[in-house]
Write a structure and sequence with these properties.
Elements: E1 3-6, E2 25-29, H1 32-42, E3 48-54, E4 66-72, E5 76-81, H2 82-85, H3 89-96, E6 102-104, H4 107-115, E7 125-127, H5 142-150, H6 170-196, E8 199-202
Parallel strand pairs: 1-8, 2-5, 3-6, 6-7
Antiparallel strand pairs: 3-4, 4-5
Length: 213
């Protein structure tokens, strides 16, 4: 049976979907010593998911610097606390790596923020936004894409929390890890559908309500 996907997913339907949460191991990285071990593990993986978090600014003024970079394999997600580490040698090595594909969403924004921490040559990154339209999907948000491809909801409740807190709570960790890991899931499913053609694209008029479920 072919998978049904939509060119545009109705955001109103997302709230009723079952929530997805990363079920693997989450490791917080605070020191260069731990970062070195994490990067050694990550660069031995076939593919990685990447995202960043920045403390929200609720008043007019300069943006805060990126506080967290989460990098996930299929099973383990490392949370690099960049407000402690900065652009450490191991973090720089990871960002400059050209061998392992690192998948994310809106990567230009993330990389721009990371470049504010220091100079590095951008390695091998794949932006999902550059690929989903190859099969006719027009949505660009992670939440809509995951709902469209998998029928599950990624909660965004932790997005505007303080990512510079002394200690990240479990909900923040789960949110951060899920965002990075879900990029792997989406990319691999996108590649599968492109290869097999095992999908049916339903085009929804912008003013219509999708019946996706």
């Amino acid at each position: 049976m072919k998978k049904t996907i939509y060119n545009k997913y109705d955001k109103k339907l997302i709230g009723a979907l079952p929530q997805v949460l990363f079920q693997g191991r989450i490791v917080v990285i605070l020191t260069e010593r731990d970062a070195e071990k994490a990067v050694r593990y990550l660069l031995a993986q076939p593919i990685l998911g990447v995202d960043t978090e920045t403390r929200p600014n609720f008043r007019k003024g300069p943006m805060h610097q990126v506080a967290l970079m989460q990098v996930s394999s299929h099973d383990v997600c490392f949370l690099f606390r960049l407000n402690h580490l900065g652009l450490s040698p191991s973090v720089k090595r990871l960002l400059e790596d050209t061998t392992v594909p690192k998948v994310g969403l809106s990567l230009n924004d993330d990389l721009q923020q990371l470049h504010r921490l220091g100079d590095f040559k951008t390695g091998r990154f794949i932006d999902l936004q550059h690929h989903v339209n190859e099969i006719g999907v027009e949505d660009l948000s992670l939440q809509k894409l995951y709902a469209n491809f998998f029928g599950r909801k990624i909660s965004k409740r932790q997005q505007l929390t303080n990512w510079e807190s002394d200690i990240l709570n479990d909900k923040q960790k789960g949110y951060a890890a899920t965002d990075a890991w879900s990029c792997i899931m989406l990319y691999e499913e996108l590649m599968r559908l492109e290869k097999t053609g095992d999908y049916e694209l339903i085009k929804v008029d912008e003013h219509e309500t999708s019946t996706a479920a």
